[in-house]
Design brief:
The protein has nine helices and 17 strands. The chain starts with 5 loop residues before the first helix and ends in an 8-residue tail after the last helix.
Amino acid sequence: MAKINLKSLRAVATLALGVAWAMLTLLGVQLPLQAQLASSGPPQPQSALQGQAAAALHLGASAAPGVAPEGLADLKLTPGSMVDIHVFEEPDLDGSYRLDDHGQISMPFAGTVRLEALTLPEAEAAVRAKLETEQILKAPHVVVNINEYSAQNIVVMGEVAAPGRFPVLTARKLMDVLAMSGGLTPLAGSEIIIHRSNQPPQVTEVVHYCRGVNSQASLNVAINPGDSVLVKRAGIVYVLGAVNRPGGFPMQEDGNLNIAQALALAFGTAPEASIDGIRVIRKLSDGSISEIPTHYNQFSKGKASPLALEAEDVIFVPVSKLKSTFMDTKTVLSSAASAAVYTLH
């Protein structure tokens, strides 16, 4: 019987193990690549694949893996963004290019190409047109992929829970922008002022938002990167004197409030109130002060329309005609300055 050479057997086994490991490693690399190529069509240029991978890293940081950010097809290039360009007919033009402060890139032979505010298909067309105009290539095939987007801020100010700057890549609905800033405060009014980044400072848009009705259409207004949003505070009306809950009340809902509604918010007049002496104290635009009679008995019986109020109006309900003579206008106004402000939840 032939003797078994243990040293030789150990060497053969080690060699076979190494070959098997190498084959498994090779299969583990090739099989996913073949599956990718089979599902994605013709092979893509290496620069294009790198651009897609980089875009996934930069844009998918806050999203689930493989999920593109909302509005990706409408994303526009901004200064600071980096793109990968592949020209099939001339590999020397391939490379990564970052948009400068003027939104331009500089390509060999072709010179500068403006890509700011263009989508990727539009950028491909711009590069293709530049190569043709400079007579570098005829009918070139160009692929532009995003390597890195430069996010812009939307600024949200005013009556929101968390005002600040919020980086975004694409346009967002107004309701999304308000949600990012924590939502409206109880003192938010019915006007939202929007300033577009491409408009002069004095040009603004006003969106009217009413809590009491369906404002879906208003909240669907698109807010673009670079825009700013200001949520204005509601006007305050003060009800003081002989009422059950004196204080200030925001002119919420549609921004309108009349004297009957304001008295209702103050839980009505107290039993000792002198309703004949109820008056509205209003500051006029020239700085003067006007006292307006209210005719409480007429509008409470439906014989007249209740007086429409303006922001900063003060409704004073005296206890009696005698005591009301000692409560001058300045005293009432000073009381309004320190009055509590109630909000509707």
